[in-house]
Design goal:
31% of the residues lie in helices and 18% in strands. The protein has a 9-stranded parallel beta sheet with strand order 5-4-3-2-1-9-8-7-6, covered by helices on one side. The protein has a 7-stranded mixed beta sheet with strand order 11-10-12-13-20-19-18, sandwiched between helices. A 5-stranded antiparallel beta sheet has the order 22-23-28-25-26, with helices on one face.
Length: 674
C-alpha cells in the first residue's frame, strides 16, 4: 500500500478497536494453557480490549526452516476472540531463531570496529542482509496468510522496535547497500565528492567501490559520510518494515504499523520519514530516571508522537506499570503514578494505552520488568491500579477521536540531532536533545502547550514557533519560519541554528547562517563555555554552555552578558520582521530565566498559557470541534485549583470550580467548548 493510501486510512480514523483502548503485550508461549484461561478472565476484569501476540514468536512458529507450527497461536487467538479481546498480531520477525544465525552467520550485524555481534540477545541481524529479509518476509507472509481474515485480529504489528539494537551495521553487505543508496542519492561519484567535501584530507573517491561504511578511523571521520550513513540506516530499516507490510496487505485489509521509540535514548531512526507509511502511528515510552525531569520528557515524547501522527489520535503500544529493568536504578512507580502517567499520554492525544507486558516473566532478560500482573499476583497495589485505569478509561470513553491543537510549534529534527552531535564541533557539551528538552521544559513550566513539527512543515495558524539548535537547516526550513514571521507570527531561534546545509557545508558570511537576516544579528565567532563556567546576564539570569561574539544589525538587544568571554555582548535579541518578530538567544539561560523569556515571547505573540498549568501540573485540552475536554494532571504534593466548569468525568459529577488533589487527575467536559 502506498504512503498516500496509508494517509487516507488515517484520515478515515482507522484504529485497532473502537473507543479508548487498554492493551498489553501478551506472551502466552511463556505459560501453560491453564494460565491462558486465567489470563483472559483477568483481562476482562481489567478492561483489556487489545493484546499484542507473536511479537517474538519466530522460533516458536518456525522451529525449523520452512516448517511452521501454528497450533498454539491458533488456540491463543481463538481463546482471545471468544472472550471479546482483539489482537495486535506480530509478524514474529523481531529476532531470528538460533537455527537461522547458525545456518547463515553472515546475517549477524557488524560493529564499527569490524567485529561481529553474536546471537543470544535480540535483534541480532543486519538490516541490509538479503538472507534475513527473505526469511523474515517469508514468515510474515505465512502469518498473514493464516490469520489475514481471523476475526480476532484488529491490527498488524511489523517486527518490534525496529533499530532498537541494530540500527547500524558496518559489514560488507551493508557497504554494498550503502553504495547503492548513495548512487540513488547523488547519481555520480563527482556529486558525492562535492557533497562530502572530499578535497579535505585527500579523501576524493575515484570509483564507487572505494566507498564504504564509516567504520572506526584513527582520526575524525568525514562528517557528511557519517550523516549519510545514518540516513541510509534509517531508510534500510524502513525498507524492511515496508517489505513485511507489503506481504501482509496481500492477505489482509487490517491496519499495519510498527512501534516507534520516541524517547531520550533512541535517535537512530528518522520517524518523520517513517510516519507517512504507517496506518496508525504507535510509540513505546518508558520514564527515564536518568534525566533531570522524566515527566517533561514523557510529555515531550507524547507531543512528538502526536506530531508524527499529523495531529490525529495515536497509540501508546508500550509503557510500564512500574519499574523497567534496563536503567542503572530501576525506580518503581509510586501509588497513583500508574494512572497519572498513563493519562498524560491520553491527554496529549493517545487513544490507546498498552503495557509491556501482561504477566511478569519468570525467566529471561526482562524478568524484573514490571507488568500488569506482577510476580506477586493480583493481591497487589499494581493490579488494583491497573483495574482502576481500565475503569477510568471507561468513564473517559467519549474523549476517543478528539485531538489536541496549540498556538505554538516547536521544530524537532532527527536529522539535525544526528548532525549537531557530530565530532569536531565547538563544544561536545552542547547536545541537541538536551537543548530541545531545555526549551520544552521551560514552555511546559510556563503553561504553554506546543505542537511538535518537522523542519520545513507549514506553520499556518501558529502564533509562535520555537527553533532550538537547528544546526542543519535547509533553505526551505528557514523559509517556513520566515514566512510565519513575515505574516505576523513570532519566532524564537537559539544558538547553533542555521549553521550548515544538508551536506554539512557551512553557510558562509557569518552565523547564524540561514537565519541571519530574519534575526537581524551577525555572529563572528563562537565562544563555548567550559563545564561549570557561567555567564551573568543583566536580567538577573545566568547562562551556560555557550557565548558568542555577536552584534546586532536590525535587532534590538533585550539581554546582555555582563561577564564571560565577551562582556557586554547581546545574548537575547528581538528583531521586527514583516508583520511579526524574531527572537534570538545566544546562550543557554538557566531554567527560570528561560521560563521568564518564553512567557514574554509568548505574550507578545498573543499566546495565553492554559490556566493552572506549570512544571507540576499538566493542563491539556482535547476537542472534537463540537465539544472540548480539559485534562488536569497534578504531579505535585498539594492540591491545585484550576478555572473550569462542566462535567468532571473521573469523579462523574458536575462542577463550577475544579480542585485537583495531589497526585490526581481530573477531566472536565467543558460547559463552553473551546
Amino acid at each position: 500500500m502506498s504512503a498516500d493510501v496509508a494517509a487516507t486510512r488515517r484520515e478515515a480514523g482507522v484504529g485497532p478497536v473502537p473507543g479508548l483502548v487498554l492493551g498489553c503485550d501478551y506472551n502466552p508461549e511463556q505459560w501453560s494453557p491453564e494460565v491462558w484461561h486465567e489470563d483472559v478472565a483477568l483481562m476482562r476484569e481489567a478492561g483489556v480490549s487489545l493484546v499484542a501476540v507473536n511479537v517474538f514468536g519466530w522460533s516458536d512458529v518456525e522451529p525449523e526452516p520452512g516448517r511452521y507450527e501454528f497450533e498454539r497461536l491458533d488456540a491463543v487467538l481463538d481463546l482471545l476472540h471468544a472472550h471479546g479481546i482483539g489482537v495486535n498480531l506480530g509478524t514474529g520477525t523481531a529476532s531470528p531463531p538460533p537455527w537461522l544465525s547458525t545456518q547463515h552467520p553472515e546475517i549477524l550485524p557488524m560493529a564499527a570496529d569490524g567485529t561481529r555481534r553474536h546471537p543470544g540477545g535480540r535483534q541480532a541481524w543486519c538490516p541490509s542482509s538479503p538472507v534475513f529479509r527473505e526469511r523474515a518476509v517469508a514468515l510474515a507472509e505465512q502469518v498473514a496468510r493464516r490469520y489475514g481474515s481471523h476475526p480476532a485480529v484488529r491490527l498488524w504489528h511489523v517486527s518490534n522496535e525496529l533499530g532498537c539494537h541494530n540500527a547500524h551495521c558496518w559489514c560488507d553487505v551493508s557497504a554494498a547497500a550503502f553504495r547503492d543508496w548513495l548512487r540513488a542519492r547523488y547519481g555520480t561519484i563527482e556529486a558525492l565528492n562535492s557533497a562530502w567535501g572530499t578535497t579535505f584530507w585527500s579523501q576524493r573517491y575515484g570509483a564507487w567501490d572505494q566507498v564504504g561504511t564509516p567504520r572506526l578511523t584513527v582520526s575524525t571521520p568525514n562528517p557528511t559520510q557519517v550523516l549519510d550513513f545514518q540516513r541510509f540506516s534509517s531508510d534500510e530499516l524502513l525498507a524492511h518494515h515496508r517489505a513485511e507490510a507489503e506481504v501482509i496487505r496481500r492477505h489482509s485489509d487490517i491496519p499495519v504499523t510498527t512501534n516507534f521509540m520516541v524517547t531520550a535514548h533512541r535517535r537512530d531512526v528518522d520517524y518523520w520519514q517513517w510516519a507517512p507509511h504507517m496506518d496508525l502511528v504507535a510509540n513505546d515510552h518508558y520514564l527515564d530516571h536518568r534525566l533531570p525531569d522524566p515527566l517533561a520528557e514523557l510529555a515531550f515524547s507524547a507531543d512528538v508522537t502526536r506530531g508524527l501522527a499529523g495531529g490525529r489520535p495515536w497509540m501508546l503500544m508500550e509503557h510500564s506499570t512500574s519499574a523497567v529493568n534496563w536503567q542503572p536504578v530501576n525506580v518503581a512507580k509510586r501509588p497513583g503514578e500508574l494512572l497519572r502517567t498513563s493519562l498524560l499520554h491520553l491527554a496529549r492525544g493517545a487513544d490507546a494505552l498498552c503495557f509491556f507486558q501482561w504477566r511478569a516473566s519468570a525467566q529471561g532478560a526482562e524478568k524484573f520488568h514490571s507488568a500488569m500482573v506482577p510476580h506477586a499476583g493480583t493481591d497487589t497495589g499494581v493490579w488494583r491500579e491497573v483495574v482502576e485505569l481500565g475503569a477510568t478509561l471507561g468513564r473517559l470513553e467519549e474523549v476517543a477521536g478528539s485531538t489536541v491543537r496549540h498556538d505554538v510549534a516547536l521544530v524537532f529534527s532527527f536529522e539535525a540531532w544526528w548532525a549537531a552531535d557530530g565530532e569536531g564541533h565547538p563544544s561536545q557539551h552542547v547536545r541537541y536533545l538536551e537543548q530541545v528538552h531545555h526549551w520544552y521544559r521551560a514552555l511546559r513550566a510556563a503553561g504553554i502547550g506546543v505542537d511538535v513539527v518537522a523542519p520545513g512543515a507549514p506553520l499556518d495558524g501558529y502564533r509562535l514557533v520555537v527553533v532550538p539548535e537547528l544546526f542543519l537547516t535547509r533553505d526551505g526550513d528557514a523559509a517556513a519560519v520566515e514566512r510565519l514571521v513575515a505574516n505576523g507570527g513570532h519566532a524564537l531561534v537559539t544558538y547553533f541554528s542555521g549553521i550548515v546545509d544538508a551536506d554539512l557545508r557551512v553557510r558562509l558570511g557569518g552565523y547564524p547562517g540561514a537565519f541571519r537576516d530574519l534575526l537581524g544579528v551577525h555572529v563572528e565567532q563562537f565562544h563555548p563555555l567550559l563545564p561549570g563556567e557561567m555567564l551573568t546576564l543583566d536580567d538577573g539570569g545566568a547562562g551556560s554552555l555557550w557565548a558568542e561574539e555577536l552584534r546586532t544589525t536590525t535587532a534590538e538587544t533585550r539581554v546582555h552578558a555582563t561577564d564571560g568571554p565577551v562582556p557586554g555582548a547581546p545574548v537575547v535579541t528581538r528583531s521586527a520582521h514583516g508583520a511579526g518578530a524574531a527572537w534570538y538567544v545566544a546562550t543557554t539561560p538557566d531554567l527560570d530565566a528561560t521560563t521568564r523569556l518564553v512567557r514574554e515571547v509568548a505574550d507578545g505573540a498573543g499566546v495565553r498559557p492554559l490556566p493552572g498549568a506549570g512544571a507540576d501540573v499538566d493542563v491539556v485540552r482535547r476537542t472534537d470541534g463540537a465539544r472540548s475536554w480539559l485534562f488536569v494532571l497534578n504531579h505535585g504534593s498539594t492540591p491545585v485549583e484550576v478555572e473550569a466548569a462542566g462535567f468532571e468525568l473521573v469523579e462523574q459529577q458536575p462542577i463550577t470550580a475544579l480542585t485537583v488533589p495531589a497526585g490526581a487527575v481530573r477531566v472536565v467536559r467543558e460547559e463552553v467548548p473551546r
